[in-house]
Specification:
This protein is 55% helix and 12% strand. It has 18 helices and 11 strands.
């Protein structure tokens, strides 16, 4: 059976050596001393490795079952969920006012990675609840917050987001779910939603659905969409549960992966709904949840790549196959271990350099979210908004690719279910699709985010990279050559791609949109290149200062050199594709495909 070891040491390195969280002026960061964060991460690591990880295979094999309108989760999930709730983990970074612990989002992000690596399907129950609670926190009335948030923060009640319908996914303006105003200020919600993660289950007393619907007589298209709270059970004035609402599960979807999560068809039949925010402004409120979810999905790409890599590494060290071409390494055995072979090393280095770079990228993004929410930093908010489609799209694409590489290390055993590797690949695959398919993320990046606020945020990113290179150049010749020069070259490729879009995209939008996917990946590589340059700087400083763990930092530098030499140059290929324009992409008539 696969195993999972929480990467707490690497998280500590990123938080303290790279991001220097205690040196930040973000409120609450002064409390993030190394001993404090270590205690949190170690405790979360124990729960994830000892309780959640052993249930991952169980959830995959058993899945959820629907009986008489009730969804039953896999064996062990309910007890594990009670342990998660008792530990206060769902409310780690939620306000104390509603029962949370008010820790910074960056700590919740680090903990979330471990939960997701250990058991992605299980973690989605609390993850969706966190997103729904965040939407209510940002856009709900005080009464709505007081009614729902304490129970949601504790996960006594869980939450969902209901967007997709059988005939519309990304184009939400086509939705048919209706909301009829009632004399008492409520609405009657009727319609069907599909692909609803954690839509029905047996682990919570109530489920709070956030549902997009159109109020009768409202504007056409997306401008007529509103957001509603639709609880499974109505809530009485004293907070107790009342009558069952007009919402029911119609079916559980049969899926490729994440079998332990109940992905449901939800039917609304004159269900009582409560408007969140203003009429016809539902997308504004839902995007609070969607943006958080997209960051969480990006983390899922990392989380599955990390746990798959860990198991592939163990297998490569243990499995004996062939002899090292440079000389026997295991003379007492019939063959050498897989890890001696260069192509296996290449695969493992691809996986390791991605996972560690992605972890730094996500935690850096989390600090910007904290800066925006805790300090009102609009510049940080702008940059993380720019980076959100990259975190979601690039990390899930490459994360999935790396689960395949990990599976490949096993050879034929990687294709056999008992080894568990196919689950990581199957589970990771959904992350490229939900919360906005990755092609849509690329279109959002190029079509909206680059020009947002007059291009202010992308220019700020370029300046951030340029400043880092300038401030750190000339101090160490090897560091310049191995880290800064590759980063500078990749950043220039990214700027050249942006310039191509500016010069050609206005006259023919297809020239820009045909290159959007390449641009998203190019941008992702530059972000990971920046992270590796920062990590390389931190490890060099640690070695110069006489660290007690030189092996860790030497390994970190070797891994960083690999990424900068073998992965970052991909920006040149992406640039060539982008500059080829859209004519070849759009050349065929639809009938000729």
């Amino acid at each position: 059976m696969p195993s999972y070891t929480p990467p707490t040491k690497d998280m500590q390195f990123i938080l303290h050596d790279v991001l220097n969280v205690t040196g930040s002026d973000i409120p609450g960061y002064d409390e993030l001393e190394a001993d404090f964060t270590s205690a949190i991460l170690e405790e979360a690591g124990k729960l994830t490795s000892e309780v959640l990880a052993p249930l991952n295979v169980t959830g995959d094999k058993e899945g959820c079952r629907l009986e008489n309108g009730v969804v039953y989760t896999p064996t062990g999930f309910k007890d594990a969920f009670e342990q998660v709730k008792e530990g206060g983990w769902p409310g780690l970074d939620m306000p104390e006012e509603f029962g949370g612990q008010n820790m910074p989002y960056v700590i919740g992000t680090a903990v979330g990675e471990m939960f997701s690596s250990a058991n992605m399907a299980f973690t989605m129950y609390q993850g969706l609840t966190h997103g729904a609670a965040s939407a209510i926190l940002a856009h709900g009335s005080q009464e709505q917050k007081e009614t729902y948030l304490p129970k949601m923060v504790s996960c006594e009640w869980t939450g969902t987001m209901n967007l997709t319908e059988p005939h519309c996914g990304t184009d939400l303006g086509l939705m048919r779910t209706k909301a009829e105003p009632q004399d008492d200020g409520t609405f009657k919600i009727s319609g069907q939603k599909i692909f609803i993660s954690a839509g029905e289950h047996d682990m919570a007393d109530n489920i709070i659905h956030l549902v997009l619907a159109k109020i009768n007589g409202g504007p056409e298209g997306i401008k007529g969409v509103s957001l509603f709270i639709v609880p499974k059970f109505l809530v009485n004035e004293d907070g107790s549960l009342g009558a069952r609402n007009g919402v029911a599960v119609g079916n559980i979807e049969e899926k490729m992966g994440i079998h332990g999560n109940s992905t449901c068809v939800m039917n609304y039949d004159d269900a009582v709904g409560y408007l969140i925010g203003e009429e016809h402004k539902g997308m504004r409120a839902m995007f609070t949840m969607m943006n958080e979810a997209r960051l969480g999905v990006g983390m899922q790409g990392l989380s599955q790549a990390e746990v798959a890599y860990q198991n592939a590494l163990d297998y490569a060290k243990d499995r004996l196959q062939g002899r090292d071409v440079t000389g026997v390494k295991n003379p007492d055995g019939p063959a050498d271990p897989l890890i001696v072979h260069p192509d296996i090393r290449r695969s493992l280095m691809d996986q390791k350099s991605f996972a560690e770079g992605a972890r730094a990228f996500i935690l850096w993004g989390a600090t910007m979210i904290d800066a925006a929410h805790r300090s009102g930093d609009k510049d940080a908010d702008g940059i993380v908004s720019l980076l959100t489609p990259i975190i979601k799209g690039f990390l899930t694409d490459v994360g999935y690719d790396n689960t395949i590489k990990a599976q490949q290390v096993y050879g034929g055993h990687g294709y056999i279910e008992e080894w568990g590797m196919s689950q990581y690949t199957r589970d990771a695959r959904i992350a490229m699709i939900y919360e906005g398919a990755n092609g849509v993320q690329a279109l959002d990046l190029v079509g909206r985010k680059l020009a947002q606020d007059g291009g202010k945020h992308v220019m700020a990113f370029f300046e951030l990279v340029k400043t880092f290179i300038k401030e750190n150049a000339g101090q160490d010749e090897a560091y310049d050559a191995e880290f800064l020069e590759p980063l500078k070259a990749a950043s220039k490729d990214l700027q050249a791609a942006g310039m191509y879009f500016m010069q050609n995209g206005m006259s023919n939008p297809n020239h820009a949109l045909s290159g959007s996917y390449d641009f998203m990946h190019m941008f992702g590589h530059v972000c990971l290149g920046l992270m590796w340059a920062r990590m390389g700087k931190a490890s060099r400083a640690a070695l110069a200062n006489g660290t007690s763990d030189p092996d860790f930092h030497e390994t970190k530098l070797a891994t960083g050199r690999y990424y900068m030499a073998r992965q970052l140059p991909a920006t040149a290929l992406h640039l060539t594709r982008i500059q080829s324009g859209g004519d070849t992409v759009m050349a065929l008539d639809a009938a000729n495909f």
